[in-house]
Amino acid sequence: MKVFAQKMKDMLETRKQxxxxxxxxxxxxxxxxxxxxxxxxxxxxxxxTIALKDTDARASAAAHVTMMDELNKGISxxxxxxxxxxxxxxxxxxxxxxxxxxxxxxxxxxxLGFDGATEAFPAAITADIQGIMADAGITELRYIDGTAxxxxxxxxxxxxxxxxxxxxxxxxxxxxxxxxIFMSEDANGCGMSVTLSGASTTDPIGLYWMGGQERLTGxxxxxxxxxxxxxxxxxGNAYLLTGIGPSSTLFDANxxxxxTTVPVYRHVKPNEYNRFIAVWNVGEYDGAGNIVAAxxxxxxxxxxxxLDTKEEELGxxxxxxxxx
Length: 324
Prior knowledge:
alpha+beta; five-stranded antiparallel beta sheet; 33% helix
């Protein structure tokens, strides 16, 4: 009897232990344990977010620096292979509502990635400047024709006028894209070619740099250098800006020295001009509001679509300057 009672006791104890073990296995995580896990995951996610902040923009900045170098080398190589002739048909960065280069009345700031009112200014491309450009091989510039309406665009709301050009680019009803805006109407753009003959009674207008010589070359400019306020008495070098768009012969694959790809500048809005810009030394300010043409045209620098120099773009890449 005692033996039987002991066995029953042992069986009950074993069963009790089994039930206790099963209960522990079914308990799962406590609320406190879950909160700790969530806090750890949040901390890890926050650290990763900080580490990856602006990674895409900084990667684009690195690519932009490479593109600026390639364009500089590409233009120089083209000139050598073409026996001192530069690529032709760059984008003027200017607009006309009259359908001719002599009727330029507005900068298409709505279609550009920079503020033309504070970073660049319009002035005449005089006959002498046209002459040194033509001597170097640049006999045409592309302008926005404000009277154009590309196929499938809605006239009066999606045309090439300065008031509607952003809507034109943004619309899904047509095939116009920002980077090709200086191409012709038939090619889903707003552009027209203007010959730089120097023979017209009214000189075409160009867009000139006013960011100072030091930003471009690293060398300080002279006292009185144009800063946007003293054009009438300005001295120092005059720099003409041209967009490096797909219409340029630089990208003619059938031409010796032609590049195969048109670089795209990505730190702009989808409906803004997204090409890089060449800065040309065309002469000097004479201290009386005029530009005296240089003996020859020289490429000074390539800047991005926001008129940032290579060094400034490098600052975006290494994190010492905010990305755009």
